[in-house]
Design goal:
- It contains 12 helices and 8 strands.
- It is an alpha/beta fold and 294 residues long.
- It has one domain: TIM Barrel (Alpha-Beta Barrel), CATH 3.20.20.
- Helix 4 links the parallel strand 4 and strand 5.
- Helix 11 packs across helix 12.
- The chain is globular and about 55 Å long.
- InterPro entries: Aldolase_TIM, DapA-like, Schiff_base-form_aldolases_CS.
- Belongs to the DapA family.
- This is Dihydrodipicolinate synthase family protein.
- Pfam families: DHDPS.
Length: 294
């Protein structure tokens, strides 16, 4: 992670690149990660942007192994979450065997659960993870599990979680989670445009799908906030807002990467096609990123 503890982390929530037939493209995924290694603080692998519900066990293991090989274990957060505790435990063991030291697990989803169920789920994962650090992943909009700071804090203490990634409605509650969790807990927001407010609320940084394609605006914003440079922050925030507005879907991120020469743009999961207006906005970002430096 970032060597400067006062600076926010910018982690890329990387998509899973597949070929035209939808099969995992290991070379393309390695090329994506290699292109990012010197441009941000780390990666979040096989998460929502990575279409994890549609990945097989072996594919998730392959993606984690590639990320570990490129970034090293201290800069990779391997998402091993699954709807079933049994599957999440298996994935945690796979990741640790591959050398992962940092794991993240989404709450159970689809069937309704209570706070005790969530705690048992996380406890099984932290036990399987052995010495790996484990973070929760809260995305109530997708899982149906409410984001309650006090309940999560109790679950974190009882199960041994070291923090969490907060996405969707949970991201707006980051300050409540900071206040509820023990000192030293790490919290990242999935609302990548809100990096400055995340830092000021006590969060560690952002996990950004958009940064997979255009990392520089996010790292520039993190640098400006760390320096206390208000003018640079305003400039960087404008660029971040442009990127996040254009890349607000996984398919949009994949389209941008394809225009940058990485992958096919094909989704593993069913999704709407990228519309003409979205393509135009993305193409402008690509042209700006590829423009020669004066």
């Amino acid at each position: 992670m970032s060597a400067r503890s006062s600076r926010a982390d910018v982690l890329a929530a990387v998509p899973t690149l597949v070929d035209e037939a939808g099969e995992l493209d290991r070379a393309a995924n390695r090329a994506l990660l290699t292109g990012l290694v010197d441009r941000l603080d780390g990666v979040f692998v096989a998460g929502t942007t990575g279409e994890f519900p549609a990945l097989h066990r072996a594919e998730r293991r392959d993606l984690i192994e590639i990320a570990l090989d490129v970034f090293g274990p201290d800069r990779v957060v391997a998402h091993i979450g699954a709807a079933a505790t049994r599957d999440a435990v298996t994935l945690a063991r796979d990741a640790v065997a591959a050398g992962a030291r940092r794991l993240a697990a989404i709450t159970p989803y689809y069937l309704p659960v209570d706070a005790d169920t969530v705690t048992r789920h996380f406890a099984a994962i932290t036990e399987a993870g052995r010495d790996a650090v484990v973070y929760g992943y809260l995305f109530p909009d997708r899982t149906g599990v409410p984001a309650d700071a006090e309940q999560f804090a109790r679950a974190a203490v009882e199960s041994g979680l070291a923090g969490a990634k907060l996405s969707g409605a949970a991201a707006a509650l980051l300050a409540e989670f900071v206040a509820a969790l023990p000192a030293g807990s790490l919290l990242w927001s999935g609302d990548d445009a809100a990096l400055a407010s995340v830092v000021r609320a006590g969060g560690r940084g952002v996990v950004s799908g958009s940064a997979s394609a255009f990392p520089e605006p996010f790292t520039a914003l993190a640098d400006a906030v760390a320096r206390g440079d208000a003018e640079a922050e305003r400039t960087a925030q404008t660029e971040v807002d442009d990127v996040t507005a254009a890349l607000d879907t996984v398919q949009g991120i994949k389209h941008a990467l394809a225009r940058l020469g990485l992958g096919t743009g094909v989704m593993r999961m069913p999704a709407p096609l990228v519309g003409a207006v979205e393509r135009e906005r993305i193409d402008r970002l690509v042209a700006r990123a590829q423009a020669p430096v004066a």
